[in-house]
């Protein structure tokens, strides 16, 4: 009888240890799932209460099939070069720094060289003319980069590039790509209206800085704020913007100097 009792106690102990092990595995599994779900997006509410972070309507890799990313096969001509942007409020010049964000700078150089911004005036004969500055949040950012022609916007939307490491802070009047998550940058860009250093920690890599005509940035129409719908712009193009936001400002051209 003693032997049977001892064997029963040993069996019970083994069962207890097995149950404890399963409980620990479940805890680690839950923690792993929670951690793997973290992606870039709008920051959590805090005492500082920053404005919402810049984001696009690009699909998130966490909920959609992976997209093909494009890397430039050859570097741009120079490590630093200037781009003159023409807008409905005047011209401004940005200096791109390849060392700040090599992939982003090469994408921007490609956009300018291939005429992405050369849509002409939004009031001209071409209904897709101009690249709308569709998001203007005072003391935060102005955002643009959805082509006025839905077909062209869709084609450029496939040119996804990987993230760059953050090498330079999101200072006032610097240029940065918008994103909806890791490795989702395409053509949408924003200009910082003030120092937004908190965006550095969220992996938004600055690629250029305004060096001339910076006062033009502060003249862009702000009254529409975040009202324009990005999905509607992508589906209907500038026709949607002109019908609903007639005073919106636009980029009308860009040239590498």
- Quaternary form: single chain
Query: Structural class, from secondary structure content?
Result: alpha+beta
How much of the residues is beta strand, in percent? 15-25%
Largest sheet: 9 strands, antiparallel
Query: How many individual β-strands?
Result: 9
Spatial strand order of the main sheet: 3-9-1-2-8-6-7-5-4
End-to-end separation: 96 Å
Low-confidence stretches: 18-73
Mean pLDDT: 78
**Shape, per Cα inertia axes:** globular
Structure description:
The chain has 257 residues and is of the alpha+beta class. Helices cover 26% and strands 18% of the residues. The protein contains 5 helices and 9 strands; from the N terminus they run H-E-E-H-E-E-E-H-E-E-E-H-H-E. Strands 3-9-1-2-8-6-7-5-4 form a 9-stranded antiparallel sheet, covered by helices on one side. A hairpin with a 2-residue loop joins strand 1 and strand 2 (90-97). The longest helix has 35 residues, at 2-36. The radius of gyration is 25 Å and the shape is globular. The N and C termini lie far apart (96 Å).
Provide a quick synopsis of the model.
By secondary structure, this protein is of the alpha+beta class. The chain contains five helices and nine strands, in the order αββαβββαβββααβ. The protein has helices spanning 2-36, 102-113, 150-156, 230-236, 238-244, and strands at 80-87, 90-97, 131-132, 135-137, 141-144, 174-177, 189-192, 206-212, 250-256.
């Amino acid at each position: 009888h003693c032997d049977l009792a001892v064997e029963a106690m040993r069996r019970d102990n083994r069962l207890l240890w097995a149950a404890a092990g399963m409980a620990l595995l479940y805890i680690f599994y839950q923690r792993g799932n929670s951690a793997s779900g973290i992606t870039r997006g709008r920051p959590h509410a805090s005492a500082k209460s920053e404005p919402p972070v810049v984001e696009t309507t690009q699909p998130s890799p966490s909920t959609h099939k992976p997209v093909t990313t494009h890397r430039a096969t050859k570097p741009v001509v120079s490590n630093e070069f200037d781009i003159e942007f023409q807008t409905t409020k005047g011209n401004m010049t940005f200096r791109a720094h390849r060392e700040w964000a090599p992939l982003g700078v090469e994408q921007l150089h490609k956009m300018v060289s291939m005429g992405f911004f050369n849509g002409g005036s939004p009031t001209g004969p071409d209904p897709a003319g101009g690249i709308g500055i569709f998001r203007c949040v005072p003391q935060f950012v102005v955002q643009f980069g959805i082509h006025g022609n839905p077909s062209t916007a869709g084609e450029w939307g496939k040119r996804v590039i990987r993230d760059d490491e953050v090498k330079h802070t999101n200072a006032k009047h610097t240029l940065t790509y918008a994103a909806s998550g890791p490795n989702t940058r395409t053509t949408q860009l924003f200009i910082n209206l003030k120092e937004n250093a908190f965006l550095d920690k969220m992996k938004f890599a600055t690629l250029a800085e305004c060096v001339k005509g910076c006062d033009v940035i502060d003249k862009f129409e702000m009254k529409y704020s975040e009202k324009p719908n990005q999905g509607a712009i992508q589906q209907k193009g500038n026709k949607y913007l002109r019908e609903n936001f007639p005073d919106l400002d636009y980029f009308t051209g860009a040239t590498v100097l």
